[in-house]
């Protein structure tokens, strides 16, 4: 099982915390992190990762108009 995200042709979900990159917590809230988000540049919990992804999508749509 993978414990850290890997670069490649497809995104891979993390099973464990990226212990070398943070103290175990989400970079946006006080929850424990579920993985490392490269776009954000830090560890995020699932809820914050979803919200950050939605924000990025909204920003792309505004730029494309």
Summarize the structure in words.
This protein is of the alpha+beta class. The chain has a domain of 41 residues. It contains one helix and two strands, in the order ββα. The chain is elongated, with a radius of gyration of 13 Å. The N and C termini lie far apart (42 Å). The relative contact order is 0.16.
Kindly summarize this structure in a few lines:
This protein is of the alpha+beta class and 65 residues long.
| Structural Rg | 13 Å
Helix percentage: 25-40%
Report how far the terminal alpha carbons are from each other: 42 Å
Would you identify the regions where 5 or more consecutive residues have pLDDT less than 50? none
Largest sheet: 2 strands, antiparallel
Q: Could you spell the SSE succession in H and E letters?
A: EEH
Mean pLDDT: 75
Give the tally of β-strands.
2
Derived from helix and strand composition plus strand pairing, the structural class reads alpha+beta
Number of helices: 1
Strand residue percentage: 5-15%
Strand order of the largest sheet: 1-2
The coarse silhouette is elongated
Summarize the helices and strands and which ones pair or pack.
Blueprint: E1 35-37, E2 42-44, H1 46-64
Antiparallel strand pairs: 1-2
